[in-house]
Amino acid sequence: MPNVQSHPCFLTPQRLQPDYPLFVFLPGMDGTGRLLRAQTAGLESAFDVRCLAIPPDDLTNWQVLTENVVALIEAELQQSPDRPVYLCGESFGGCLAMKVALHAPQLFDRIILVNPASSFRRKPLVMWGAQVTRWVPEFVYRLSSITLMPFLAYLGRVTEGDRQAFYDAVLSVPQRTSIWRLSLLSDFDVDDEQFQQLQQPILLLASAADRLLPSLAEVEHLARFFPNAQTVVLPHSGHACLLEAGVNLYEIMEAQDFLVKHSQELSRSH
Asked: Which end of the chain has fewer beta carbons closer than 10 Å to its terminal beta carbon, N or C?
């Protein structure tokens, strides 16, 4: 893994597969790109996987962050411009994925949004908690981050190794950066009518047992505006559902007939 310091970059979990469709994952608030680890084995059977890593000192706005991601994807496509591209965003990354898709819709063949945090600004209690974060001492912030983890994920459904990676990722975000990313969520505002320009198939995953945000209601709301959307409800999952041992993103995509033909053929050949 490269040492991420000055600007967003893509991490390659295992190997380069330039003949495969490109799968781009945009992470949640931690920004590390490392919490897709529970899903990469399945995804790499049919995709060339990239995970966005946002430096812990990155304080850029939505516009700059969006342009950075688009530039990274375009760079990946220079050698194979015709291969399909899947864009997947989880939580904070779901909001970023919507920004990226609206900025450059021609790049993407499929879009997956997992518990997108676009409902953040409509939750007064969560907004209040974000404001309080600005004023607490650093040691209190770190303690509150640990306390918040059971609300982010059902830890009993996460393997020991993934649970440790989850703790490490959450604690890696400095207080200043956490405040900034929460402010971005507070400011996230896309006119629902804009989503109608996204004609490609869109898969919306919602955790019905999300204790952090009303993800099911938000996904149902978004599904009314995307012209070609399908929804999958995970009845027992928490907010960070992709870390849970019982959730297999590739199998969900396959079951929903969400794979382009090329991806299905590659998977069968392996």
From this structure: C
